[in-house]
Design goal:
Length: 316
């Protein structure tokens, strides 16, 4: 379709994607996009955040201008392409709860993790599997890929990266989903976390996943393989799924304690004891935890907690 397309026609196509705002001429818009793509590494701030296992997660935060461009690529381009039904992260209308509910009350729960997930997705992966030649002129494909990658890989922290990862994994999800359907196994993937449930041969599933990941140039994280039977606490993305969907008991208990101490001693005394100075951030964080519980289970007790914390926030 785009064979032998002229430079002017290619630029016209690029402008039609509406990636840049401002009182600029078309020529200036094109120039800004190419300057940005040629200096992409200079437009990221790199920092680390701690993970639960004690290791560090590297986050690449794009500059304000690049982030605006990436959001438009996400909204105007990427979201026009469907992801697999097995993908539950970064998909409109789906949540952590959707990822967990499918695995409710199953005999065996298998949790697998993809090693260095975002770093394993290369420039060429994005170029070949997201910005396909039947939909984009070559020069536009190259430009869009540069705008969505960092130093030849997919940066965790860019607005486009999560949706791109789902597009990259679409064929994998469909193959694994078909395999699981044939073997009466439930399957979902939440970013790099894969969950399988039912009554099945665990080794057979692990071997199949390992083989399909290898075709993508990816690896299983063997340190994070978890097999959990129904006589133990089965959790999927922070939600207990043994009998009914519920946030872990210890997390709900911790929220109860915090609300109790606030009511008994007052918010100022409570925060002084915890050596916390930012009251607003603390209450927002607690409010978010309560909302997470209510997203999973509409518990009357936690509805009252939410009203109480919201009243404190409104009185700040």
């Amino acid at each position: 379709m785009f064979d032998n397309i002229t430079k002017d026609k290619s630029n016209e196509f690029l402008l039609s994607l509406n990636l840049i705002d401002g009182n600029l001429s078309d020529k200036e818009k094109i120039k800004k996009l190419y300057i940005l793509s040629n200096n992409i590494e200079c437009n990221y701030k790199k920092y680390e955040i701690p993970k639960k296992d004690g290791s560090k997660r590297v986050i690449y935060e794009p500059s304000y201008f690049l982030k605006c461009i990436q959001k438009r690529i996400l909204n105007n381009v990427l979201e026009g392409f469907k992801v697999s039904k097995y993908a539950t992260a970064y998909v409109k209308g789906k949540s952590i709860k959707d990822n967990a509910l499918l695995h409710l009350g199953k005999k065996i729960l298998l949790k697998l993790d993809i090693k260095d997930f975002f770093n394993s997705i290369s420039f060429m992966d994005v170029y070949n599997r997201c910005f396909l030649e039947e939909y984009f002129p070559k020069s536009v494909r190259i430009l869009l890929t540069y705008l969505c990658t960092y130093n030849e890989f997919l940066p965790q922290g860019a607005p486009t990266s999560s949706y791109i990862s789902n597009l990259i994994m679409r064929n994998f999800d469909e193959k694994i989903g078909a395999f699981c359907g044939e073997n009466n196994i439930n399957y979902t993937r939440y970013s790099d976390d894969m969950t399988f449930s039912g009554d099945f041969d665990v080794k057979k599933v692990i071997y199949k996943v390992k083989d399909e990941l290898k075709k993508l140039g990816m690896q299983l994280n063997y340190d994070k393989i978890r097999v959990i039977y129904s006589n133990n606490s089965q959790t999927v993305t922070g939600i207990c799924v043994n009998e009914k969907a519920q946030v872990l008991r210890k997390k709900r208990k911790k929220i109860r304690q915090e609300v109790y101490y606030i009511k008994k001693y007052g918010i100022y005394s409570h925060l002084k004891k915890l050596n916390i100075k930012d009251k607003f951030s603390y209450l927002c964080n607690l409010f978010g935890k309560i909302n997470f519980v209510l997203m999973v289970n509409n518990d009357k007790e936690f509805i009252e907690y939410r009203k109480f914390i919201l009243k404190l926030l409104n009185n700040l």
